[in-house]
## 1
Amino acid sequence: MFHPKLEYLRISIIDSCNLRCKYCNPYGSSGWNKKEYISATDICEIVKFFSRLGTRKVRITGGEPLLREDIDKIISGIAGIEGIEDLALTTNGVLLHKKIESLREAGLKRVNISLPSVDEQRFKSITGGDIGSVISSIDESIKLGIPVKINVVAFGEEIVRELEGFIGFIKNRDVMLRFIEYMPVCANTYSRKRFIELSRIESILVSDFGFDYEERHNEMISRVYYKEGVKGRIGFIKPVTAQFCDVCNKVRINSRGELRPCLFSSVTINLLDLIRNESDGDAARMLLEFLNRNSSKPDIRAISNGDSEVKIRLFEIGG
Ligand code: SAM
């Protein structure tokens, strides 16, 4: 009964955030009632159901997942589920330095930390927050031996001038820094003029900074570059100019327990209802039928150009 999209599950456990990133969540939250959030027990029930269908990787995201007081319970609950081999967290890093040790003990394996700028002022202007605690979180995670990926949404022309700063940042840090194309995901605040095609940065990295393409390290959705003398690596994820729908192996669940088959899809199915009201076999069959019925690929270029509308808020469904 395995479906390729069920290999990897992303669960957003909260819709609100403690930063106000202009490319993502300038509002702070959707205003959902906390009482509607799926509980730690519900989350584990959902993951158990998915693990029986073949899911092996789980990522916890948000909103800002570390704002959930029961985050340790959620992580340890999922870590104990048979079949789950990889458990990762996406966070803005503001609170992570205080929590990373206990989360590792709870069973967390990897972290992705967002860092849209390494310049203190620019970081503040994009996110509304302070960069210091985010850098502490990155360094604390590295110190504990937890693999770290750094997510850099390429937001505006300034990113070109910042490339040197990012290279300096990873010179002595063994991390994978990935530039991500700015996606048209926040209906009311998307700004077309802030979009930067990442092939431009990729060319500059090779021509001006002497980086090489690393074939053996190539990941499924990102091209990776390295340079002798630089500890970290740089990857490029291009969801807009090089859509990777054909290799997409994930579904997303929001903090109300609703599953979305694709980031750009507007249909959802309520998983908690499904799991609670149907037998295991019927729930699985209905989920697979739902995925097959809703498998069309989005035209992200058209959405970016404003030719079609999208109402997705990444902070609701998780990045
Ligand atoms: N609060 C956490 C954080 O900041 O990483 C987790 C939630 S955030 C929605 C997850 C990811 O979404 C971030 O790593 C960010 O890179 C990505 N993201 C948010 N808005 C985006 C956009 N407009 N285009 C591309 N990626 C975006």
## 2
Amino acid sequence: MSLTQPRGNGDSTTVRPVTVQSLLEMKRAGRPITAITAYDFPTARLVDQAGIDLVLVGDSVGMAVLGYDTTLPVTMEEMLHHTRAVVRGIRHAFPVADMPFGSYQVSSEEAIRNATRFLKEAGAHAVKLEGGSLRAPLVKRMTDAEIPVVAHIGLTPQSVHRMSGYQVQGRSGEAIDGLCADAIALEAAGAVAIVLEGVPREVAAEITRRAGVPTIGIGAGPDCDGQILVFHDLFNLTFSPPAKFVRRYADGAAFFGEALERYRDDVIARSFPSDKESYHLPKGVLEKLALTEPRADAEPREAVEPGANRRSQMDLERFAEIYSELERV
Ligand code: KIV
């Protein structure tokens, strides 16, 4: 076994996976770290193929995919389920799983047990948890247990009720000092990276300058070591107005919506599926059953109002006859 084991991607090519060490090297070399959330296999595959460095299975899955109002209801089982799907789609990126609300606050034993499940059962390479200096002892215990931890400070969505809403953090001298102290304590405890969310650009720049580990910003300005966005924000798939820091790179809602309307219209017009998109009986069977082969260029049947295309009782009886004949062939 070689010391570096590139993961195969199912074909003949191999890719070099991103690691804690390579993320650190990117910071030191001043190379921006690209990160995004993903929640399922196809989006993880797309993100990975695009060469993104870090994929976070965020608890934002609760709002982006599961339709909850906040991230608070997300469970361990939901996070594990989505993490497994994402990890199956990744060859290159560093997969991080978010610890859901309640999974690390009760006791450090329970937190470590839960974090372990993300690495052992779902294939994540690190976990992320929210909170500042208060979490440093837990980060240390997890690090000692061989679980890499990404910290998350600033606007921490799991604290939505304590913060009285989603508010930009670190705007007063005292709050800025608090954030800097948080970053220092978390790094000292072993955090491998720090997500900075919803903090003024100047504060994020200062923390990034002082931190020895990479900072990854979301709503924290361009001076962080890396940037992360929620996948559904990037593609206009949230059904709500975007936050100030979101840049929409494509209109997924329009793209999918338009395709779905065309599909619906084709079904109603009976132009989908076409003869070419249908399976056919072999000639001999056709003759035996005395069925007529539909002409490939046959006019589509008359379009019907949606809901009116129910099969008649006679059709169904005829089908039953044909199928019982076929079973005997
Ligand atoms: O859950 C999430 O998507 C996150 C990112 C916003 C960093 O925590």
